[in-house]
Specification:
Elements lengths: L21 H17 L6 H5 L2 H4 L2
The protein binds zinc ion.
Zinc ion binds next to loops.
Length: about 55
């Protein structure tokens, strides 16, 4: 049973699954984060505890 990378649909690499490469994993992470930040006025309480500087690293 072959799993496909959700970003580019290539075969998944076990070391970075469910993605095919670190690059696709990074793309998905950034996409997920940006979608989360776009939500207007509906910030999860957990984010309020984080310092803004930590998110920029
Ligand atoms: Zn990929």
């Amino acid at each position: 049973m072959t799993t496909k990378c959700p970003i580019c649909s290539r075969p998944t690499e076990p070391t970075v699954r469910p993605f095919c490469s670190r690059r696709c994993a990074d793309v998905d992470l950034k996409r997920w984060l940006s979608e989360d930040y776009i939500l207007p006025g509906d910030t999860p309480a957990d984010f309020e505890d984080m310092e803004p500087g930590d998110l920029r690293h």
